[in-house]
């Protein structure tokens, strides 16, 4: 992976993590937390889209959308586990 690819991953992770925190009414998790939640969310969202045979397409916006959906699911699962 080149430096450009790493920077894109970090930006997508940060934006998706922040958006997911905002959607879930918890606010952001700080820069590092947003990046981690966003990157893990990208894996979850990508896996879910493939499992459901959903083709979102390529590009920055679709990557952020996929990562945000996955991050929202991640936050939801974490909150459910914390309550139990």
Large-scale geometry: globular
* Quaternary structure: single chain
Q: Mind describing the biggest β-sheet? A: none
Structural class by SSE content: mainly alpha
Number of helices: 3
Q: Total number of β-strand segments?
A: 0
* SSE string: HHH
Q: Compute the separation of the termini in Å.
A: 39 Å
Helix content: over 70%
Q: Using the CA coordinates, give the radius of gyration.
A: 13 Å
**Strand portion:** under 5%
* Overall pLDDT: 90
Task: Itemize the secondary structure elements and their pairings.
Layout: H1 3-23, H2 30-51, H3 60-83
Task: Give your account of this protein's structure.
The chain has 84 residues and is mostly helical. It is built from three helices and no strands. The protein has helices at 3-23, 30-51, 60-83. α1 (3-23) crosses α2 (30-51) and α2 (30-51) crosses α3 (60-83). It is globular, with a radius of gyration of 13 Å. The model has no long low-confidence stretch (mean pLDDT 90).
In a few lines, what is going on in this structure?
With 84 residues, the protein is mainly α. Helix content is 80%, strand content 0%.
Question: Characteristics of this structure?
Answer:
mainly alpha, 80% helix, globular
């Amino acid at each position: 992976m080149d430096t450009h690819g790493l920077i894109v991953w970090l930006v997508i992770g940060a934006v998706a993590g922040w958006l997911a925190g905002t959607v879930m009414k918890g606010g952001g998790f700080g820069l590092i937390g947003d990046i981690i939640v966003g990157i893990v969310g990208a894996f979850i969202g990508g896996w879910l889209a493939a499992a459901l045979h959903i083709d979102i397409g390529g590009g920055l916006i679709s990557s952020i959308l996929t990562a945000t959906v996955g991050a929202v699911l991640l936050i939801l699962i974490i909150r459910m586990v914390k309550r139990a």
